[in-house]
Backbone:
């Protein structure tokens, strides 16, 4: 069937910022959609608010809008571009919800825009809990007993009829947002209220509990002719009760009988046919192994997180194929490597895929490490092996949590069996590691099955690994037989883990293994619908992958998403692969993250889906023999490998590992700065409490303290006195006694700035200086920031550019570098140098139009900056980045900002004025400041002077101001009228009453701090619960006031990123 000839221009809606439940898998699907539709001859208009994505690069779509994902923004874009059609099912829940809202508002009909891929009524049948239940009843497909409720009272009544526990599932949400398991009426009231608030349509399904049942998923693709194929059968190892995004899972299904798989497929085909989706659909089932009852839980009539996993697990690019099918092709038009065309596709492959989630509870003091129906993972890894054990152990070492095997994690091996049993009673991120030690202590397979509901077969596999590990431990400190090493490697034991078990170093294990001819072999996964393949390693089969004699370069990816290292680093790796191809090199990508564009089959010439460890990377290097390896684009992950790789003979391209180490070595770096005459805050480093106290006494408080060699501000804190310093040092040394603690003078109320640069060893180029909106003390990844600078003087900007160039040349940087500065008392201080790609590279590239990663790749391969034509630029627009946080998924956590990074993603607001750009960034982040109404202002004593200016601006704009007694009195003394409101402990009505009754439209609240007699976190938590815009710094409050003033004059016309770039002038 040909493309749709009555359509020329198609609008694709992206998924917005990276949040828990909706991550970079939608950059992958959106990028595939752009490529597929443009290849079919369509013009593509893309709208997304996330600047860190490949899809928002100006070359990916014909026209690209980086705008807030709201109905108003979409209508203005539709009015300007007049697309013929909209493709809603590749932008996650955001794309589906926005399309539904545009349809209900009559906007699509008004502009004559048709929906392709999935119709608006199909979205309703799939996402609306009532409509979905009616559809399932008509098909006679069983569901859990349930009723839809529109109020907490209704939910209580239904729960009493069904009996506790019950599961609550809000409609039109992602990642289980707002849902949960209620074991009693008190819990039900909390979860029901939260779910109703989260639901787009204000209803929540109250459902009988199927906790402990098996959770099974199918990925199905359907074309316009009604042909359907099952791409992947996914078995969740964790039972029902753990969100699929948190659940450990395998493909294909390893313990599910063929008859049951066929029954699930029959149900899935009937559902997909009835819903009417063209493209991919995810269907989730629960199966009770005791009585064989099957119920359908939900469907996602769109590409999903599971779609990305299924695509990478099988070689079937679901998003690409879905886009082609939406564009008019059918499965019979697309090639299938095995049987002709894709309508004949069946899952195949003699390998096992394991997905394992990664969490970030350590980033959030007070967060409960407990898994439920609301997703909490921030990333995931995928591993491939010939056997389950091999793939399982590869997944563990892919996580990058300092564990290369399942045993001896944390202090679990020292716990008693009774303690381990108690720890296993509820699912947590540590459950697999706790189970491993419980088996070592004598727990039986049946006992662990009864506690966890995990299938007996999976526990038995783990028990066999424990038994082999105990056998290996018998040889600790003495010779071990070759046969034992061979068995260990076939079962997935990593060299590093074996070295720990045997008391040897990793190189000894590697040399011993290679001496007996025990090396990784490689097998291919062919891509369906394309002439391509990618590769995985195994110790259980012969090598079947040939290599070429072409010039080639290897790029190391960033591994799993985590806070501090996310999609921004995938962006730079992808650009490196694109640049290498254009330069005539064969590009080799190594990564283990199934959500990313870097692990798309056609991003690089050769993709190795492997853990980023010395063992795995060295094995690929020795097979491919590239001219060099790029380590500076994948964040801290490849940098941590660089020294060992270089010592093993690997050529590192770009900045030398020695220069990277110099920048991290505080003492050596300080001596370089002293020689260059560049000021730094006073600093020192210590391995002991005693030395730390001596340094603190010399420098004076307040201090910024942090461990060395970390990303995302891990463990970073501001301490104001000796007691706080002692608490920090004692805890840090207990956790990591070998890691140096860096101690710096903290510059209070300093303005922070960043400069990203490209350097060739002799020169450096800075496209623009970025100014942080929050003052010093907030991690750069969490601070809102603006390009170009708004308040930094020209002299200071020139100083920053000068220092950046001089430092880059002194360190011998070849490639990218990020510099962070603080301006305090008229002096520019260097805070740190990072001779690698940073989180801000995509942001700077989008705002300035300079493709930094591409140019840096060219420089690493020998280009000179002088030959690139780069020059100083003048911008007529402002770009404001705002961070997006997961606090709505962690309601027990105080949502404050600190030196430790907590954001999962970011958005970009672009406009011709700073105030409007800031307002659009807040709008894109989901917390737009109100244009009128009441503002609650309650700040700590140290912030009262700084809150005067934003309070005065808001009062001048006509806002009513409510304040607690101390703040109200202070504002009144300075001529700003404020009405007094009671704190929680001062009687009724109080702050919580006002927030609950929606009497407040915005909250400005800075934390009282640890010395306060009362905990004020309830104010910030309530703002999130009631979805009230809030700020926790006075700098953000001032910018919000400026944004409100600008927005009152109107948002202005929408402009594409290509239009903004066309207005940039050379100076």
Residues:
């Amino acid at each position: 069937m040909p493309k749709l000839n009555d359509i020329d221009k198609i609008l694709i809606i992206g998924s917005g910022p990276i949040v828990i439940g909706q991550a970079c898998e939608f950059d992958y699907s959106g990028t595939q959609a752009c490529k597929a539709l443009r290849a079919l001859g369509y013009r593509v208009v893309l709208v997304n608010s996330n600047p860190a994505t490949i899809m928002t690069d100006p070359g990916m779509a014909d026209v690209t809008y980086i705008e807030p994902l709201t109905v108003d923004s979409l209508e203005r874009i539709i009015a300007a571009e007049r697309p013929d059609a909209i493709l809603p099912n590749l932008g996650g829940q955001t794309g589906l919800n926005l399309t539904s809202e545009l349809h209900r508002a009559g906007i699509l009909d008004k502009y004559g825009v048709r929906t392709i891929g999935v119709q608006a009524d199909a979205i309703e049948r799939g996402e609306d809990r009532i409509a979905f239940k009616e559809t399932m009843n008509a098909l006679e497909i069983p569901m859990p007993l349930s009723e839809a409720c529109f109020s907490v009272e209704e939910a209580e009544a239904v729960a009493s009829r069904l009996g506790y526990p019950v599961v609550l599932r809000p409609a039109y949400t992602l990642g289980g947002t707002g849902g949960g398991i209620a074991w009693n009426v008190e819990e039900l009231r909390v979860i029901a209220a939260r779910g109703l608030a989260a639901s787009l349509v204000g209803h929540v399904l109250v459902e009988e509990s199927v906790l402990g049942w098996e959770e099974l998923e199918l990925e199905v693709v359907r074309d316009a002719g009604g042909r359907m194929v099952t791409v992947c059968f996914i078995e969740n190892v964790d039972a029902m009760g753990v969100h699929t995004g948190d659940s450990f899972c395998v493909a294909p299904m390893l313990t599910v009988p063929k008859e049951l798989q066929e029954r699930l497929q029959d149900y899935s085909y009937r559902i997909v046919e009835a819903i009417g989706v063209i493209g991919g659909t995810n269907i989730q089932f629960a199966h009770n192994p005791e009585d064989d009852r099957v119920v359908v839980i939900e469907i996602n009539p769109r590409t999903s997180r599971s779609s990305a996993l299924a695509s990478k697990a099988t070689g079937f690019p679901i998003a690409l194929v879905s886009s082609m099918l939406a564009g008019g092709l059918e499965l019979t038009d697309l090639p299938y490597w095995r049987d002709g065309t894709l309508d004949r596709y069946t899952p195949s492959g003699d390998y096992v895929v394991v997905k394992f989630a990664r969490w970030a509870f350590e980033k959030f003091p007070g967060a409960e490490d407990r898994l439920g129906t609301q997703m909490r993972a921030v990333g995931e890894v995928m591993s491939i092996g010939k056997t389950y054990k091999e793939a399982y152990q590869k997944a563990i070492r892919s996580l990058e949590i300092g564990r290369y095997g399942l045993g001896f994690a944390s202090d679990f091996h020292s716990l008693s069996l009774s303690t381990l049993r108690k720890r296993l009673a509820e699912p947590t991120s540590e459950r697999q590691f706790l189970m491993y030690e419980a088996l070592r202590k004598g727990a039986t397979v049946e006992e662990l099955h009864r506690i966890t509901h995990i299938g007996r077969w999976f526990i038995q596999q783990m028990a066999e690994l424990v038994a082999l590990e105990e056998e290996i431990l018998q040889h600790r400190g003495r010779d071990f037989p070759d046969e034992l090493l061979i068995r260990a490697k076939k079962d997935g034991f990593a060299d590093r883990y074996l070295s720990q078990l045997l008391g040897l170093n990793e190189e000894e294990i590697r040399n011993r293994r290679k001496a007996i001819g025990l090396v990784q072999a490689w097998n291919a996964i062919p891509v369906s619908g394309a002439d391509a393949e990618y590769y995985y390693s195994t110790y259980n089969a012969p090598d079947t992958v040939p290599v070429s004699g072409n010039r080639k370069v290897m790029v190391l990816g960033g591994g799993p998403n985590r806070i501090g290292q996310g999609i921004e680093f995938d962006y730079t790796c992808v650009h490196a692969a694109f640049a290498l191809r254009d330069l005539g090199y064969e590009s080799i990508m190594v990564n283990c993250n199934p959500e990313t564009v870097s692990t798309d089959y056609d991003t690089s010439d050769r993709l190795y889906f492997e853990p980023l460890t010395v063992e795995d990377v060295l094995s690929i290097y020795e097979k491919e023999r590239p001219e060099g390896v790029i380590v500076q684009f994948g964040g801290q992950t490849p940098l941590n490998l660089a020294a060992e790789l270089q010592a093993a003979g690997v050529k590192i391209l770009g900045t030398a590992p020695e220069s990277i180490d110099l920048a991290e070595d505080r003492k050596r770096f300080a001596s370089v700065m002293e020689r260059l005459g560049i000021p730094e805050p006073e600093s020192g480093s210590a391995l002991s409490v005693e030395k730390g106290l001596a340094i603190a006494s010399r420098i004076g408080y307040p201090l910024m303290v942090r461990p060395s060699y970390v990303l995302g501000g891990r463990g970073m804190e501001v301490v104001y006195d000796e007691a706080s310093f002692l608490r920090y040092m004692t805890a840090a040394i207990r956790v990591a006694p070998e890691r140096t603690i860096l101690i710096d003078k903290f510059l209070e109320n300093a303005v922070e700035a960043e400069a990203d640069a490209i350097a060739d060893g002799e020169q450096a180029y800075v496209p623009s200086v970025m100014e942080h909106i929050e003052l010093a003390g907030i991690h750069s990844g969490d601070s809102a920031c603006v390009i170009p600078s708004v308040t930094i003087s020209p002299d200071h900007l020139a100083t920053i550019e000068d220092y950046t160039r001089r430092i880059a040349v002194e360190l011998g940087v070849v490639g990218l570098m990020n510099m962070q500065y603080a301006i305090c008392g008229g002096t520019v201080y260097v805070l740190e140098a990072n001779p690698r790609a940073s989180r801000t590279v995509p942001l700077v590239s989008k705002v300035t139009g300079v493709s930094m990663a591409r140019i840096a790749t060219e420089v690493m391969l020998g280009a000179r900056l002088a030959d690139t034509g780069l020059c100083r630029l003048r911008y007529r627009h402002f770009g404001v980045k705002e961070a997006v946080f997961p606090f709505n998924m962690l309601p027990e956590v105080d949502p404050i900002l600190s030196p430790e990074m907590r954001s999962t993603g970011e958005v970009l607001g672009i406009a011709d004025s700073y105030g409007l750009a800031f307002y659009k960034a807040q709008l894109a982040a989901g917390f737009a400041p109100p244009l009128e109404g009441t503002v609650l202002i309650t700040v700590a004593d140290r912030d009262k002077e700084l809150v005067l200016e934003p309070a005065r601006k808001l009062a001048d704009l006509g806002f009513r101001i409510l304040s607690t007694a101390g703040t109200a009195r202070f504002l009144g003394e300075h001529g700003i009228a404020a009405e007094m409101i009671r704190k929680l402990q001062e009687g009724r009505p109080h702050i919580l009453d006002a927030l609950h009754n929606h009497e407040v439209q915005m909250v400005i609240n800075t934390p009282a701090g640890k010395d306060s007699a009362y905990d004020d976190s309830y104010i910030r938590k309530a703002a999130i619960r009631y979805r009230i815009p809030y700020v926790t710094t006075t700098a953000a409050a001032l910018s919000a006031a400026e944004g409100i003033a600008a927005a009152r004059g109107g948002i202005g016309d929408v402009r594409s990123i290509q239009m903004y770039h066309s207005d940039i002038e050379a100076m």
